[in-house]
Design a protein that fits this description.
47 strands, 50% strand, disordered C terminus
């Protein structure tokens, strides 16, 4: 195959360069919300994030605004949702509600519910590998009786498909792939070791025993292609090589590293009626290969001689090319592509041996988007089309790195998480045009949003502390508090402790005040009671309230309340905005 020099050199930002915009600062200030794991369902992308109040929970965005879908683990606890998989018009995932452990959940954006408590009680089943086949979702889960085995659900009934390793032992199914009405996977039994299995939901059986007896074939990266499932597996005679099966016939596709040596094929990607992958045949190092099932060959010797091309990112098909990162031994890891005939470095963004190490490849707006570090602006977002390659923006100005991650197209926007000093890691987007078109939200009114707070400056220590909030326009508010407890200890040394109160969200009608109660948690309440019984003990709660409306206008206010143990005094206090 032909190997040519770089195609482009970096150019200045073009007029049509897309402008990035932070979707929301979910965890206000420089703290991270650690947004990530974007998964599309309908017109929204769902993800996990931590707003600093409710722990890591399930959120979603339409590209213009973000909202929490559910507080699965109530209060500051984190449910840590993950493994997002769209199925039957809902998003299925694993989460921990703090009571039943990590189990299978689902949402349609309105209703969020646990599908089943597979491992009853607080012991979790830890479902993983969610894979749709026909009208069921297959996955691995653990229960007390049978260990980690194959399960499925149709959203109504959740059941174990097969106890592959009988008893409390685990077969630990993994690497699921779907082909011809079956789900294929790797499973490990004491009798046969690690081999390929399959199930149609009724019959579950081992496909073949590549490494005879209890030996392990360690099949992995199962990938459906051209009526077969291709995978990497190990046999005593040929080492770790490329194999395939249709459930009836299983055979080694090629012994790329002759004899018992191993070529370790991996990184499979289907492109132009071929299966592409990386492999090492023992002479030219790890390079790019492909097969159609009949003929298997090296696409190019990117790094001449025995050196490895050291592929670090995935092989990504887009716009008639297969894109990847590699090094030719002269430059570091840079962006390359092939059409199966010509293989070329696209650009040398960071001249020299270090390389820009491109990653996070995604297709959007007729251009390939990716992250790279060209040595001056840190790791930022770039794009390449057939005309030029440009940096989309420098989100973290200067040498700092925004490190965009999770690039996910959603309609006319490209979503990702990125970090910058003033807001930490939060969700961002770019739109297809510098003018992204009309915002679906109502246009802002002329009047600004104004928030007023009031509260009794001295309140009796109870389960809650109260504040009244009023907006001149209809708005949503989030209130949270921080209680400071000061008291002298046994040695008369002043001790200061702080406790976060519960938070409260509310919808306020224009001009109508509403009383918001923030729960004082038991640990903080006990500490406050002890402090107020001591001479000189003081307890103060600072209440912060943020308000916003659906046009993007916002305001914030704060006030302080003193707590007393026994005496209730009359009086009123006003916020700093409205003395």
């Amino acid at each position: 195959m032909a190997l040519v020099a770089a195609l482009f050199v970096p150019g200045p930002a073009a007029a049509q360069t897309l402008s990035p915009e932070r979707v929301a600062d979910l965890n206000p200030g420089p703290a991270d919300s650690l947004s990530g794991g974007f998964a599309r369902l309908g017109e929204h992308a769902y993800f996990e994030a931590d707003d600093g109040v409710g722990g890591t929970e399930l959120w979603r965005t339409d590209g213009f605004a973000a909202e929490r879908v559910a507080d699965i683990n109530p209060g500051p606890g984190a449910s840590d949702p993950g493994g997002f998989t769209p199925f039957g018009g809902r998003l299925y995932f694993a989460a921990n509600d703090g009571t039943t452990g990590r189990e299978l959940w689902r949402t349609d954006g309105v209703t969020t519910e646990r599908v089943a408590d597979i491992n009853p009680g607080a012991v979790q089943s830890s479902p993983v590998g969610l894979t749709a086949l026909d009208s069921s979702l297959y996955f691995r889960a653990r229960d007390a009786a049978d260990g980690a085995e194959l399960w499925r659900t149709d959203g109504v009934t959740t059941e174990q498909v097969e106890d592959i390793e009988p008893g409390a032992g685990s077969s630990t199914p993994t690497d699921f792939a779907v082909l011809g009405g079956h789900v294929y996977f790797e499973a490990d039994t004491a009798a046969d070791g690690s081999e390929v299995w399959r199930s149609d939901g009724t019959t579950t059986a081992r496909v073949t025993n590549i490494n005879p007896g209890a030996g392990d074939a360690f099949p992995n990266e199962l990938t459906a292609f051209s009526g077969r499932v291709y995978f990497q597996a190990s046999s005593p005679a040929a080492g770790t090589e490329l194999w395939r099966t249709n459930g009836a016939v299983t055979n080694q596709v090629a012994n790329i590293f002759p004899g018992a040596g191993s070529s370790f094929p991996g990184g499979f990607a289907v492109f132009a009626d071929r299966l592409y992958f990386t492999a090492d045949e023992g002479i030219f190092g790890t390079e790019l290969w492909r097969t159609d099932g009949a003929a298997t060959g090296r696409v190019a010797d990117i790094r001449p001689g025995a050196g490895d091309g050291t592929f670090q990112s995935e092989l990504f098909p887009f716009a008639g090319f297969l894109w990847f990162d590699a090094t030719d031994g002269t430059t570091g890891n840079e962006l390359w592509r092939t059409d199966g005939v010509t293989t070329a470095r696209v650009v040398d963004l960071r001249p020299g041996a270090q390389g820009a190490t491109p990653g996070e490849l995604a297709g959007f707006d007729d251009a390939l988007h990716f992250t790279a570090n060209e040595g001056m602006d840190g790791r930022e977002l770039w794009r390449v089309d057939e005309e030029q390659i440009t940096q989309v923006t420098d989100i973290d100005p200067g040498a700092g790195s925004a490190s965009p991650a999770g690039l996910t197209p959603l309609g006319a926007t490209l979503l990702f998480s990125a970090s910058e000093p003033t807001a930490g890691r939060e969700p961002w987007r770019i739109a297809k045009d510098t003018d992204p078109g009309p915002d679906p939200r109502p246009p802002p009114q002329a009047d600004p949003l104004e928030l007023e707070l009031s509260a009794k400056p001295r309140q009796r220590l109870r389960r809650n502390v109260a504040v009244r909030a009023r907006c001149n326009l209809g708005c949503s508010v989030l209130a949270k508090g921080l209680m400071t407890v000061r008291a002298k200890g046994r040695r008369r040394a002043l001790r200061v402790r702080r406790f976060a109160t519960g938070s409260r969200r509310a919808e306020l009608a224009a001009g109508v005040p509403e009383r918001l109660k923030l729960r004082i948690r038991k640990k903080g309440r006990k500490a406050a009671e002890r402090a107020l019984r001591r001479r000189g003990g003081r307890v103060k709660v600072r209440i912060d309230v943020a308000a916003s409306d659906d046009t993007g206008r916002a305001d914030a206010d704060e006030l302080a309340v003193r707590l007393r143990d026994r005496v209730r005094r009359r009086g009123g206090g006003q916020s700093r905005h409205h003395p």
